[in-house]
Amino acid sequence: MAERIITKRCSFCKQSKTLSEFHYAAKSKLKRQSICKKCNREYQRKYMRKYHKTQKGREIANRYRKSEKGLCVSRQAYKRNRIKKIASATVRGKVRNGKMPHAKSFTCNYCPNQASEYHHHKGYKRENWLDVIPICIPCHSKIHNS
Fold first, then answer.
1. Given a cut of 90, is residue 30 above it in pLDDT?
2. 74: pLDDT confidence band, cut at 50, 70 and 90?
3. 56 vs 52, which has greater pLDDT?
4. How far apart are the C-alpha atoms of 20 and 98, rounded to whole Å?
5. Contact 74, 82 (CB under 8 A)
6. Are 133 and 123 a contacting pair, CB within 8 Å?
7. Is 119's pLDDT higher than 90?
8. b/e string for 108-118 if b means 16 or more Cβ within 10 A?
């Protein structure tokens, strides 16, 4: 017997999607939110950009950063991204010392645009820290957000 796939229509983009593409919502009939994860992410980003530009938004963000919970989250993020920061700092140091050309002197590896930064395409292990390719910001965002 074939398994029946339950779909739901996103109220934002109006597309039918599987239930796994919606966040959990306890009070909903299907136990899912009405907006899909992708649309929810876009909406949250637009809202937060707009909100953080206001004085009240900046005050609340600063108060959170200084709170015990905010400091804990910041420490966890630092630990999670420590190796990435060291790898990026190593590349910046080589560029600054003239041992490596600046990324802007190349074109992007994925499109014809001018590169603006380096991408650690082999990962962040110590032996790969200087194994980088020049890339533009839009292509870099696509790689990390896909």
1. no
2. very high
3. 56
4. 49
5. no
6. no
7. yes
8. bebeeeebbbb
